[in-house]
């Protein structure tokens, strides 16, 4: 596992920088992965030294999006209801991202803003969810991927919310 600092050129001449942790052996593979997943041109790519990569991983754990199951299921259900009523996914995410307040609203809004950043960078919905495995359980990520591929995102988001609620109830019962 290598950690890279990258700067890429997106469509519309927008430049995005970031840090990516990739399971690749060669720097050229990292370049190809970035170009494919962001549909962009890599302007700069630097592999971080091992000690810096470890520091980055530790810091990432501190700042990763944390959201309780009730908050996550609420966010997923809100997205499902909005998309089922015909609101595009990006607009639904923007609505969640613009929520203000404490607790559920701020955690869900923070996570929605991060998803929007990924989508604005050219990632698909399933790729954006996959980049936050600490926030979205594997089943949710898989359901979103199915929704992305089949055009049934509203139903898959509702299924995801149901799944998170079921798991939360089972965990609470033990």
Automatic annotation (TrEMBL):
Domain of life where this protein originates: Bacteria
Primary subcellular site in the record, as a coarse category: membrane
Domain Type II secretion system protein GspF, residue spans: 76-172
Family to which this protein belongs: Belongs to the GSP F family.
InterPro entries in UniProt: GspF/PilC, T2SS_GspF_dom, T2SS_GspF_sf
Transmembrane helix as UniProt keyword: yes
Organism of origin: Coralloluteibacterium stylophorae
Protein's membrane topology: Multi-pass membrane protein
Subcellular compartments: Cell membrane
Protein name: Type II secretion system F family protein
Entry GO terms, CC: plasma membrane
Pfam families for the chain: T2SSF (PF00482)
Keyword Transmembrane helix annotated: yes
